[in-house]
Amino acid sequence: MYNELFGQVDEYISGLFNEKDEALLATQQSIIDENIPQISISPNQGKYLYLLAKLCNARRILELGTLGGYSTIWMGKALPADGRLVTLEYEPKHAAVALKNIEGAGLGEIVEIRLGKAIELLPQLIEEGEPPFDMIFIDADKPPYTDYFEWALKLSHPGTLIVADNVIRDGKVLDENTTDEAVMGVHRFNKALAANPAVTATIVQTVGVKEHDGMAIAIVK
What we know:
The protein is of the alpha/beta class. The chain has eight helices and seven strands, in the order H-H-H-E-H-E-H-E-H-E-H-E-H-E-E. The chain has a single domain (2-220), classed as 3-Layer(aba) Sandwich (Rossmann fold), CATH 3.40.50.150. It is 43% helix and 19% strand. It has a seven-stranded mixed beta sheet with strand order 3-2-1-4-5-7-6, sandwiched between helices. The protein is globular.
């Protein structure tokens, strides 16, 4: 009952605030057509990330987990013409589909897709002298979330906004005895985030077409 209501309210909000965007619609369809897992953020969550990027005046964004490029496009749309978004993706097929979608959205000059394991690509960014990012969005495999966060801090500056998705897992994080690796991963991350003195943070519960989950929001001190 509640999931149905949450979905209806989500659609109501989207109808009010999200204008029809052909590139985003095409991206959603490509994910279906290419049999890519249906785990992208929702349209309202996309708008939320867009607004967060605007609020922190982001010129440089780092994303962990490209999938089909849906969230990438939302954040890329928030950047100025000379902005930069680096997105990391492990699956070659996902990266290929995302590249086509990103170019279709007119963001090919702003977005760079890097192919490989995020845990290996993150130190490479530092070794290459990549300047700090203004916003970092973590939405990749859950077991190494804490490691991703530690690398994100190294790629940040005071004031950087770090957002991590899927950290409530339909309330399963309350189960201290879980054997689900994804839940265990975000459970470790949530505790590490709360204990880290380098950031001020909280978790916002999310409901809607993506059911019950949450996003962690942290600002680097």
